[in-house]
C-alpha cells in the first residue's frame, strides 16, 4: 500500500496534516476565517503584530479592509465564551506579512490552536504539552524555551514604575545583556538589589526540571512566588511524559509584549533552523484590551520553515524517480513503467532530458522492451 505521507506530500504538508490530527484528538475544533478583516482591528492592536505593515484595500461600501497578518486577533474577535466555559479551536490558515528574508509581502502558512475562556492549571499545561508535541511532529531534535512573565513583572517591581525604564530593562533581558543592566545600576536608574535579581534571572537558563529548584532563592515578592507556583505545577503536570519534559528549557530572556501577554510564554526550535518555528503563550491582557473578560492561551507553528532543513535523511526531492525517455519509446511502455513505479509508492517525473535545478533520489531511463533500467543516483 502506498504511504501517502512519505510519497506524495512535501515535508511541511505532512506536518500540517499530523498537527491538525493531534489537535483534533484533544478536542480542538477547526476554526475557519475570512482572508481579511477590518483594518481598524489591526490599527488598535498594532503592537501585538509581528509587523505593523498591513496590506489594505477598500471594500465596495467604502470600508478599509486588510488581508489578515495575524490569526489570533481574528479568533478573539469572532469568539465569545460564557462564564465557566472554555472554547478550544485549531486552525490551518495563511497570513500576509513582510518576510524577514525577502523583505517583501508573502503568504505564510500558519497552524496552531487557541484555548479561550476559563483557563485553569490543566488547560494551561495541555496547551504547553501540545506545543511540545507539535515540535516533536516537526523533528526528533527539538527544544522549547519557557518563560513566565510573572517572574519578570515581579523583578520589574523592584525598579519602580517608569514605563520607559521597564522597556529598556526588558530589552536588555531579551538580549541577555547583563552589562546593560549593570550600567543602569551604575547610573542609579535602578538599585543594585534590583540589578542583582534581574541578572540572576538571566543566569537561570537550563533544563526546566534542573533550574526550578534554584528559583525560590530569587523570589522577593508575591508576584514572583505566584509565577514560581505556576511553573512548578506545569512541570508536575508534564512529568507524565518524561520525553517531552526532557526537551523543555527555562529561559527568562523569552520576553513577549507585556501589554498583551501574561504568565507562561514559550518558543520552539528544531535543529537545523536558526529561527523559532513555534511561538505562543498566555495572553489575558489582549483579551481585556479587546473587551473580553476571559483568559486565553495558544500558539502558532510555521511549518513552511521546514523547507530550510536539508539533511541526508530528509532531503526534499522534487520526485523520487526521474524517468527519462526518447521519442522512440512507445507511450504505452512509458505508461506501464510509470504505473509500476507509482504503485510501488514512488513519485515519478517523466522527461526527455534532465531538468536543471531539480533533485531526484534516482534516475531511470526507458530501455527496449519497456523496462526501466537504473541509470544513475543523485
Low-confidence stretches: 1-8, 310-314
* Full CATH superfamily name of the largest domain: Bira Bifunctional Protein, Domain 2
Order of helices and strands: HHEEHEEHEEHEHHHHEHHHEEEHEEHEEE
The backbone outline, from C-alpha atoms, is elongated
Describe the main β-sheet briefly.
9 strands, mixed
Strand content: 15-25%
pLDDT averaged residue by residue? 86
Q: Based on the structure given, which CATH architecture of the largest domain is correct?
A: 2-Layer Sandwich
Structural class: alpha+beta
**Strand arrangement, major sheet:** 1-5-6-12-11-10-7-9-8
Number of helices: 14
Any idea what the radius of gyration is? 25 Å
Count of distinct structural domains: 3
Percent in helix: 25-40%
End-to-end distance: 26 Å
Describe this structure in words.
The protein is of the alpha+beta class and 378 residues long. It has 3 domains: 1-118 and 283-316, 2-Layer Sandwich (BirA Bifunctional Protein, domain 2), CATH 3.30.930; 139-256, BirA Bifunctional Protein, domain 2; 319-377, no CATH class. It has helices at 4-7, 11-25, 39-43, 72-77, 121-138, 149-156, 163-174, 178-186, 192-203, 208-211, 222-238, 242-245, 284-289, 331-343; strands spanning 29-30, 36-38, 56-58, 64-67, 86-98, 105-117, 142-148, 205-207, 248-251, 264-270, 278-282, 295-301, 319-324, 348-351, 360-366, 372-377. The strands form 3 sheets. It has a 9-stranded mixed sheet with strand order 1-5-6-12-11-10-7-9-8. A 4-stranded mixed sheet has the order 14-13-15-16, covered by helices on one side. Strands 2-4-3 form a 3-stranded antiparallel sheet. Helix 2 packs antiparallel against helix 5 and helix 6 (149-156) runs antiparallel to helix 9.
Amino acid at each position: 500500500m502506498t504511504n501517502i505521507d512519505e510519497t506524495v506530500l512535501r515535508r511541511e504538508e505532512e506536518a500540517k496534516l499530523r498537527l491538525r490530527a493531534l489537535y483534533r484528538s484533544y478536542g480542538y475544533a477547526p476554526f475557519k476565517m475570512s482572508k481579511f478583516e477590518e483594518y481598524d482591528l489591526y490599527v488598535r492592536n498594532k503592537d501585538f503584530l509581528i509587523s505593523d505593515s498591513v496590506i489594505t484595500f477598500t471594500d465596495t461600501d467604502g470600508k478599509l479592509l486588510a488581508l489578515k497578518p495575524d490569526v489570533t486577533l481574528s479568533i478573539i474577535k469572532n469568539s465569545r465564551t460564557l462564564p465557566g466555559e472554555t472554547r478550544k479551536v485549531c486552525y490551518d490558515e495563511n497570513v500576509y506579512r513582510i518576510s524577514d528574508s525577502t523583505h517583501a509581502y508573502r503568504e505564510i502558512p500558519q497552524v496552531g490552536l487557541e484555548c479561550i475562556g476559563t483557563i485553569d492549571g490543566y488547560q494551561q499545561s495541555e496547551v504547553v504539552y501540545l506545543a511540545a508535541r507539535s515540535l516533536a511532529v516537526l523533528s526528533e531534535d527539538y527544544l522549547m524555551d519557557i518563560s513566565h512573565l510573572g517572574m519578570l513583572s515581579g523583578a520589574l517591581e523592584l525598579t519602580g514604575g517608569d514605563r520607559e525604564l521597564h522597556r529598556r530593562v526588558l530589552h536588555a533581558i531579551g538580549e541577555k545583556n547583563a552589562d546593560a543592566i549593570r550600567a543602569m545600576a551604575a547610573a542609579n536608574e535602578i538599585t543594585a538589589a534590583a540589578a542583582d535579581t534581574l541578572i540572576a534571572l538571566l543566569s537561570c537558563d537550563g533544563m526546566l526540571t534542573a533550574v526550578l529548584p534554584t528559583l525560590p532563592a530569587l523570589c522577593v515578592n508575591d508576584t514572583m512566588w505566584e509565577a514560581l507556583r505556576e511553573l512548578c505545577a506545569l512541570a508536575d503536570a508534564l512529568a507524565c511524559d518524561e520525553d517531552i519534559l526532557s526537551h523543555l528549557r527555562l529561559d527568562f530572556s523569552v520576553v513577549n509584549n507585556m501589554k498583551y501577554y501574561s504568565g507562561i510564554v514559550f518558543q520552539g526550535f528544531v535543529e537545523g533552523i536558526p529561527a523559532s518555528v513555534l511561538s505562543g503563550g498566555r495572553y489575558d491582557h489582549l483579551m481585556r484590551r479587546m473587551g473580553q473578560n476571559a483568559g486565553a492561551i495558544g500558539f502558532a507553528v510555521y511549518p513552511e520553515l521546514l523547507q530550510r532543513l536539508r539533511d541526508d535523511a530528509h532531503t526534499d526531492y522534487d520526485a523520487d524517480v526521474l524517468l527519462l525517455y526518447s521519442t522512440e519509446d512507445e507511450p504505452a511502455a512509458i505508461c506501464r513503467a510509470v504505473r509500476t513505479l507509482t504503485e510501488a509508492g514512488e513519485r515519478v517525473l517523466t522527461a526527455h532530458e534532465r531538468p536543471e535545478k531539480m533533485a531526484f533520489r534516482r534516475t531511470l531511463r526507458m530501455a527496449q522492451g519497456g523496462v526501466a533500467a537504473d541509470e544513475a543516483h543523485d
